[in-house]
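Hey, I was hoping to borrow your eyes for a little while. No rush at all, and the record is pasted right below:
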Amino acid sequence: MNLEIKVPDIGDFKNVEIIEVLIKEGDQIKKNDPILTLESDKSSVEVPSPFDGKISSIKVKVGDKVSKGSLIATLSNGDSSKIKDNKSILPETEKIIQEAEKILKKIDPEKKIIKEELKQNFETKVEYKKFTNYSFEENSISDVDPQETIEWIESLNSVVERDGPKRANYLLGKLINQAYISGSNLPYNQKTPYINTIPREMEVKSPGDQVLENKIRSLIRWNAACMVVRANKKLPELGGHIATFASAATLYDVGFNHFWKAQNEKNLGDLIYFQGHCAPGIYARSFLEGRITTKQLENFRQEVDGEGLSSYPHPWLMPNYWQFPTVSMGLGPIMAIYQARFMKYLQNRSLIEDQNRKVWVFLGDGEMDEPESTGAISLASRERLDNLVFVINCNLQRLDGPVRGNGKIIQEMEGLFRGAGWNVIKVIWGSYWDSLLEKDKTGLLMKRMEECVDGEYQAFKAKGGAYVRSHFFGKYPELRDLVSNMTDDDIWKLNRGGHDPHKVYAAYHAAQNHKGAPTVILAKTIKGYGMGKSGESINTTHQQKKLDVNDMYYFRDRFNIPITDRQVENLEFYKPDEKSEEIQYIKERRKQLGGFIPTRKTKTKALKTPATEIFESSYLDSGDRELSTTMVLVSILTKILRDKEYSSRLVPIIPDEARTFGMEGFFQKIGIYAHEGQKYEPVDSEQLSSYREDKSGQVLEEGITEAGAMSSWIAAGTSYSNHNIEMIPIYLFYSMFGFQRIGDFAWAAGDAQCRGFLIGATSGRTTLAGEGLQHQDGHSLVMASTIPNCVSYDPTFSYELAVIFEDGLKRMHEKQENVFYYITTLNENYKHPAMPKGAKKEDILKGMYLFKEINNKGKTKVQLLGSGAILNEVIKAAEILSSDFGIDSDIWSVTSFNELRKDAIEVERKNLLNPDKKPEKTYIEKCFEKRTGPFIAATDYIRTLSEGIRNYVPGTYVTLGTDGFGRSDTRKNLRKFFEVNKEFIVYSTLSTLVKEQKIASKVATDAMKKYNIDPKKPIPTKL
C-alpha cells in the first residue's frame, strides 16, 4: 500500500523552513520515527512518521518552506492501520470509560453505595467515650440538648462497632455535605484532639532490646554533648549545638536501629535528610560504630587540617559521609519532596527498580516557618508520594523563644498537612500518660491538654513536678484527684511522645506501611532534654555550647554513663569495648539493614559523551537563517535524544516556559512526566506539539516554581550518588529568575556536588527587550561566579555553545567531575558564522579566543572584547572604527570572564608562593602577548563581570556594561540607554585613544556629536 506523509497540524505557523531531512529513499521507518526537522523564528520541532513503511520518494529538501498539508514523502508497503481515526474514541477517553465501568460494577444495587476496597493503610481506631466535659471546638457552641448529643454519639459508636470506621467516616461525610446543602456555614476543621494519633491498643511493638537500645542512646547523648563542650572549652569561637539533638535522640535512634536501609549492592537504600543542628549526635553514633575516630571528635568544627568534622551536613566537606546539605533552613524539606518525586520518576521510567525505598526528612518546628518548608507539600500529596516521611521535632522552641507560645504548633501543623492531603501521625504523649488517659472517664484530661498553649507546656518541663501538679492538674479538682497518689517525681516522669521509643516505633511502622500519600510525624519533645537547669526547656538552650562540671555530672547521672568524676571533668568520650553487647548490638542492627548510614556514594557507571557529529553541525555558518542560541541548544538536545544509548538520561526541566524557549516539540517526542498518565484529551491534541502527559514521560514540567524546579534539578544532578545512575538534568529558566531567585539552592547544589546544566535563557539586560525591570538579567553571571564548582559561560555563536555543551557532558558525565555548568542563552535571532579557522576548542573553553583581526594598517590598533549579545555590537563597532576612523582592531570573543578570572587568580597565587621560580603567565597574558592596547570590553551585564580581569589586562582597560535597573523598550533603545551599543563602543574607544594621546581630541568630540551622545545624561544607575 502506497501512502503519503504530509506535514501535520503545526499550529499557527506557516511557511516553516526545513533545516534537516532525516530520511533517504529506501529507508525502512517505523511509526513515530523522526523524518525531518522544522524551524520557525523561535523554535524547532521534529516531524514524526505517522506510520510504518519504506520510503519510496522524498518530496522536500533542506531549505524548503512548508505548511500544514505539504507533501513530505511517499511510502511503499506502508501500514496505515495505526493511523488515528479522528472519529474514534481517544485512548484517554476510553481509559476513563473503563475506569468508570469498574466502579459501577462495585455499586450495591440495593443501597446504591460504592463498596470500599480493603487497604493496607494505617487507620486510627478511636475508643469512643461519652465525654461530657470535653469539647474539641476552639469556639465551642453551647450544647442546647445534651441528651440528643449523647444519642448521636451512641449511634455513631454502634456504626463503628458493627461496620467499622470507614462506614462511620462515609456517613459523617454525607452528613457534612448535607449540612452544606441545607445552608449551614460549617467551620472547616482539619485538626483532631490533642492526643496521639495511634491508640495504645493499636501500637505495633518494637522487636528491639529496649534496655540495650536505651544504653546505646545514652552513650550517644553523652559523646555528642562532650564533643561540643570540649570544642568550646578549647576554642570558644567554634560554637556548636547540643539542645537540638538532645531533643531528637530517640527519633533518630529508632530509625537507625529498625527502619533505615543502607545503600549496598542489592538495595539502593533509604535517603535520610538529617536536621543540620543534630550533626553532633550523628557523629557520636558513627563513633560507636567505629566509623569516626576519637581524634575526629576532638576536632569537631576544626576541619582545615583534614582531621576534623564539619559543623553541619556538608557533602563537599565530607564527600563519603553526608548526602544532603540541610542546614539552610527550609531548603531540606522542599529538596526532599522533589527527591521523593524524582525517585518515583526514575521508577516509572523503568530506570531503577521499585525497592520500597523511603525519603525520611528530619525538621524542626521552628524551621516550618520558612516558606520553602511548606511551599511544596501539596505536590507531595498530589503526586501520592508514599515514599516520603517528614518527622517534625516539635520541641516547641526556636532560637529565641517559643515557636508558638500562644498556640500549639502541633495542631497548626496537623491542620496544614492534613488539609494538603498528607497522612498525619501525632506522637504527643509518652507511655507514662497511658494509664492516666485510661482512668479519665469524663474527658477532662483531654480538655486540659487542649486548653494549654505551648508557652505553658515549655514552662511545665522547665519548672518541675510540683509546678506541673499545681498549674496543669490543679486547675480542676477532678484532675488533681487523678494524680493524688503520684509523687512530684512521678509527675515529672510523665514523658513526651518523642522521647518514648515505643511510641516512636509505632509511628514509624505506620508511616513505613502507609500507601497512597506522604506521611508527617509530629513528635512532641523537650529542647535540651537531659541538660538540666542550664538547658532543659529554657529559652537560651539553643545557644548553649558550654556546660559546667555540675551540669555534666547531672548529665552523666541522668543517663547512667559508666564513667568516673575525673572522666567527667576531663570531658572524656566513652566507648565500650568492641566485644561489649552495646557495640555488638549497634553493629548487628546496621548489618541487618544493609550497612552504615549516612554514607555517600561518589561514583557510578560513567556515560560516554555522544558522537562529535551531533555538535559539529553547529560549527557551520547558518547562512541566511537567523536563530537564537536558545534555539541552537534545543537543536542540540533534539539530536542527543536520537542517541538511543544517551537519550534516556536527559532530564529536561522547565518551569512552565517550554514554548518561550522553543521546546514544545519535546511534548510529543518524549512526553511530560505525570504519575497518573493523561486522563484527558488535550485541547491541542491534533497539533504536532500537543501537550502530552505520560507516566513514563521524560520532561519535568514543573509549573511556575523556580524553587521546585531547582529542587528537581538537584535531585537529578545527584542521582549518580543517591540512585546509582548518571542522569543529565538540563534546567532552562528565565535567567533573571535563576540565580537571583534560587541562589541559596545553587549554593546547596555546589555543596551536594551536583552535576548538570543550568541554562539562563533570555539572558542579558538589553536582550530580553520589552519585559522590563523585573525580567532583565544583568548580573546572573556575577552571582554564578561566587560558587566555586560552577563553570559559567556566556556564548554568542552556535559553535561556541556546541563546544561548551559537549565539554560539559564530557567533564560531568564521562570524567565525572563534581562541577555544574551555568550557560546563558539568548532569545535574540541573528546569523551565526562558521567557527573561525584559527579558533581552538580549548581556547573557547578557557574563556576567550581571537574571533577576528581587522588589519588595514590604520593609525593605531585596539583590542575589543565582547560577550553574549553585545559581541555583535562589538563586531559592528570594529567595522566602523576601521572604515570611518582608520583604526584597526582585534576582536576577542569572551565566552567566560569568570573562567578567565579563575585561571588568573590561580596562576597569580602560584607565582606568589614560588618567588624563586620564573613566573608563569595567565591565559589572559598569553592572549595579549605582543598585542597593543587600549582594551575595551563590553557586555550585557553589569561592569562587575568584566572588571574581574582588570588586574591581568596589560594596558588601559575600559569596561562597558548595563549597571542599573532594566526597563521596557526595544533592544536598540535599551543598548543606547545603557551605553553598550556599537556607537558608544566606538566613542569609548576614541575617547580612550585621546587619553593615551594616540589621536586628536577633536576626533572624539566630533564622534560624540555624530552619535548624539549627551555628556550630561545621568548614569543609568541613578535614573
Notes: The mean pLDDT is 90. The chain is about 35% helix and 15% strand. Residues 463 and 537 are 9 Å apart (CA to CA).
